[in-house]
Amino acid sequence: MHPTKLQAPGAPTTDERRKMVEIAAYFLAEHRGFAPGGACADWLRAEQAIDAMIEDGLANQLGSDSAHRADVTEGIRNALKLGSGLSDGSAPHSERS
């Protein structure tokens, strides 16, 4: 087995991680009002936030096969609101109920 292919048990796959980063980047863009010119910064911040969640074991639960996409999306949104994903610590401007 190639060393770069090793993965911790229960850790999200590369594709699952990418999907989580996409969701997180969207919510970060939403938080800044979708102003133009911030997509790259949103993506990098999302990668950092998701990688931190993976290290903490939070994303392992969010990315499990039994989770529904809506649950994963809401879990990532909540983790970003509660964690360091949003630099000023505030919640996104628009809330969905």
What amount of the residues lies in strands?
under 5%
Evaluate the radius of gyration: 14 Å
Number of helices: 4
N- to C-terminal distance:
45 Å
Following the backbone from N to C, one meets helices and strands in this order, namely HHHH
Number of strands: 0
Biggest sheet statistics: none
Can you tell me the residue ranges where pLDDT is under 50 for at least 5 consecutive residues?
A: 89-97
Shape by Cα distribution = globular
**Helix-strand makeup class:** mainly alpha
Total domain modules: 1
The pLDDT mean sits at 74
Question: How much helicity do the residues have?
Answer: 55-70%
How does this structure look, described?
By secondary structure, this protein is an all-alpha fold. The chain has four helices and no strands. The protein has helices spanning 14-31, 39-56, 58-62, 69-82. 25% of the residues are buried.
Structure, briefly:
This protein has 97 residues and is mostly helical. It has one domain (12-82).
Task: For the structure shown, list the relevant keywords.
97 residues, mainly alpha, 0% strand, globular, disordered C terminus
Topology:
Layout: H1 14-31, H2 39-56, H3 58-62, H4 69-82
Helix pairs in contact: 1-2, 1-4
